[in-house]
Amino acid sequence: MARIIGYIAASLDGLIADENDNLDWLFKYDGMDLGEHDYRSFLKTIRTVVMGRGTYDFIAREASPWSYGDQRTFVVTSRPIVTPKGPLETRSDIDALIAELRALDDGDVWMLGGGQLQMAFLERGALDEIEIYVIPEMLGGGRALFPLTGFRASPTLVSAKVIDKGCVRLHYRFEHAA
User: Fold this and answer.
1) What angle (nearest 5°) sits at the alpha carbon of residue 68, between those of residues 91 and 58?
2) Which domain holds residue 46?
3) Is 0.85 topped by the overall pTM?
4) In a domain, 172, yes or no
């Protein structure tokens, strides 16, 4: 059974994008030394990538090439993607997608991007672990790491580690997950 995991950066005030859905605040940390937790190393452990439509649209607007050619990719959306940037499949039913992902046995699933889809998975007990990279920036407004939906949980801290440039890596496990 595939593990469904999150790997995401957030500002110190709990935001993943500024008020203009911009990530420039994060890009200035691109050269940061994450050691064994480096994004490229992480991506090599992932077989399947799942993202919401907002995250896909953000990636599709970027001039950079599609980064997920080695991974099976699902975009959760109710609208068709006319000209996909890379090889992907779309799904609109989150519960059916979770069942499909849980049936996979060929590697981990990365819940990429925004907190809205991650929250939908959390509410269904389907996010097993999350790595949050807390960046020492205060944005003051923008898109929250996790939207406030009334969902409550007490995840178990697996590890906390100070990394480069004043950033902190937090790794949590959700015990309710299957």
Assistant:
1) 70
2) 4-122+134-165
3) yes
4) no
